[in-house]
Amino acid sequence: MGDKRLDDAGAMAEQRTQELSDPIQDMPDRADPGDDTGSGAARPRIRRGWAALAWIAGGIALYALLLKISLTQQVTSDSANNALQAWDMMHGNPSLHGWILGDVTFYTFELPLFGVIELFFGLHTIAVHVSMALIFLIVAGCAAAIAVTGSHGPSRGARAAVVVAVLAAPILTASDAWIALGLPDHFGTGVFLLVSFLLIDRAAAGRYTAPLLCAILCAGQISDVTVRYVAVPAIALVCAYQMAVERKLMTRDGANLLAALLSVPLALAIRRAMLHFGWYLMVAPNTKIAPVGHWPHNIAITWVAVRELFGAADGGARPAGSTVIFGYACLLVVAIGMLRVLWRWRTARRVEQVLLVAIAAIVALYTFSTLASPRSPHDLLPVLQCGAALAARALVPDRITARLTALAVSGLAAVAALLPLALAAAPPPVETSTPVQLSAWLSAHGLRYGLAGYWDGSAVSVQSGNQVQIGTIEVVDGRKITPYPWEADLLWFDPAKHYANFVVIDVVEGQGLGSNVERIFGQPASTHRLGTREILIYRKNLLLQVRPARLPATN
What we know:
The protein is of the alpha/beta class and about 550 residues long. About 55% of the residues lie in helices and about 5% in strands.
């Protein structure tokens, strides 16, 4: 027995000596180019290259569809005002001095993005369409980054496709497409929410995570107060829970909790400094608690708003049956994603916990405050954006080992994402709208500066590339005309800089003007009718009779 062991040991030593003496054995990457055995190390790089190309191609295809759909939407005064603000920021007024903004400013994301796009396309409606499609793409990318966390191979693409499918739900209903692509009303806020959630999940232990988190949340609150009432409490609650589980105070979650809480006074301090140095004014956000007696009614409104958000309810025009089915399907998978996190709460990732709490926070804020009102589903957009990531994580497993199964899942998810968008992109661009008609008529008659109600103001200015400028006005107490104190630049009404000699009146809706204009401004030199609009032309500067605006409370 002993001799046999010695013989075996000698044989092994001899074999090892031969292996060490032959360098080819340890250098598979230097094999003959025609030999496949030397390509093992290159294969992962090739696969990563193909994967990167696939992601880029998918992003380009998605953006092309989004831009085509955006072109079917009219540019109203809401989005036109944002375009004018961005133009002003990029042309010498970065503080927007003189502006009265709405209750959401978009100052730290959408407006800079609009401004960059306008550097290439100028001040025109095409810049609005390009910007809105890009905002959607960026939000979808952030949600997909959360969805693919922890997944591998085909699962990553399938999850990203599910995210796109859910986010596209409101676009399929013609009357609800504005929620995602019509104007930047809370949709871009999803960037601040999703990026901050992704940060505490994938870089929680990083040295600069807490300061960066504080900066992102602070910037988000300056842009949209929704960040304060949704992202901050969601992050704080989840971090506090994790600290309680670990029974430690000095942890990464403690640092992130402190960063989230500090972002609130920091944002308030920055806003006070902005006001002190003469930056823009804004209307106070409508976040008051509703009377308890209104809560049952608000709950009903919330349910309608959620279904409208997913394209499963009437948003002004009855949606098609297939659209309703798709909307309810998206709502169902979001509900499944939420229930999955609740069921496995203790083992769920931080980002899943934060997404769930964020959804609960925005629903509670909407339901029990004065936000709840008909035709305001956009205030619930975090439900759609956070829910899309949860739905993708619930439907698609982290890893799909069977090749056929992977192909089937990926193909089905891709069809669910791209086919509805392709159908939504099929209709032609919008027909000639009132702003287009007004812009052409006013330009043809040499009218360059005038006044109008809100919906006939900035939309015409942007449509004409600022060649025709219209300030928005309102009648106060039936006795005086003042600038409309919402998304308006008070410098528009300076009679030393501008000469306004016409007024546009909507004869159907009136917008508070109607006969008051002639009673206050006097008899016009001539009156013209263009569809449902009446143009009153004067031979004087009407700005001399416009009273100072009603300024909003300091915000």
